[in-house]
Amino acid sequence: MTFSTELRKEADSIYNAIFDHPFVRGLAKGDIPKGAVEHYVKADFEYLNAFMHMYGLAISKSSDRSDMDFYKQQIDFVLNSEIHPHNNLCQYIGINYDDLQSYPLPPSADHYIKHMKHYGHEGSLGEILAAILPCPWTYLEIGERLIEEIGHDEAHPFYEWIAFYAEEGIRETTDDIRKRLDDWAEGASQREKEAMKEAFIKSSQLEWGFWEMAYNEESWELVPRQAVTTYE
Ligand SMILES: Cc1ncc(CN)c(N)n1
């Protein structure tokens, strides 16, 4: 079994929790509270900026030009293509995409990007690959499942979003990052493999946390504690 297959198996319960998450189920049903969608787009715009920084950090740790070219192409993809699913969500809520940019990240999303950047600055290229892989992999699997569920129904309000992530290009990117991770793991020590596994599992969990953050419209505002029941 390849290292990435082993990691995916280990994270299976987290992936299943993502597929069952009410935001993801809402994408399938074509019905999500609009505030949650707005919250998602605001945070995801910033998340994808951080994700491009991760590719930049991967370039800084690469010595092979074809590797540098791969990460450069991924930046280009996020900049110029991954705006389409955001535009689909903006159409659904009737808000201009430009009005949802440059907002501070809510706590869970902030934690996710800082978790990735920790590996970006302190980790090896293998740890960077492990930390970024759940991003394309979870969305690919969501896309593939949802397109099966809704079929090629272009009238579905989230058809563009779903079709985008179910596309062959997303599988190619995921497989490419998996291959790079598997190659790296072959020469890695047990200790480094443990660090890669931790990076992957935590990123998978933080993917779930991102959906939860959006659905609950999580913010930094302090919520007063509920009155505590006292017993005599
Ligand atoms: C949080 C998150 N994770 C993954 C993806 C898919 N690139 C995304 N847009 N946002």
UniProtKB/TrEMBL annotation:
Name of this chain's protein: Aminopyrimidine aminohydrolase
Subunit and interaction comment: Homotetramer.
CC per GO annotation: cytosol
Function: Catalyzes an amino-pyrimidine hydrolysis reaction at the C5' of the pyrimidine moiety of thiamine compounds, a reaction that is part of a thiamine salvage pathway.
Broad class of enzyme this protein falls into: hydrolase
Recorded catalytic activity of this chain's protein: 4-amino-5-aminomethyl-2-methylpyrimidine + H2O = 4-amino-5-hydroxymethyl-2-methylpyrimidine + NH4(+); thiamine + H2O = 5-(2-hydroxyethyl)-4-methylthiazole + 4-amino-5-hydroxymethyl-2-methylpyrimidine + H(+)
Residues of the Thiaminase-2/PQQC domain: 9-216
Organism expressing this protein natively: Pontibacillus halophilus JSM 076056 = DSM 19796
Protein family (similarity comment): Belongs to the TenA family.
One GO term (biological process): thiamine biosynthetic process
Pfam families: TENA_THI-4
Domain of life where this protein originates: Bacteria
Enzyme Commission number, as recorded: 3.5.99.2
Keywords tagged on the record: Hydrolase, Thiamine biosynthesis
Lineage, uppermost ranks: Bacteria, Bacillati, Bacillota, Bacilli, Bacillales
Any one GO molecular function term: thiaminase activity
Pathway noted in the entry: Cofactor biosynthesis; thiamine diphosphate biosynthesis
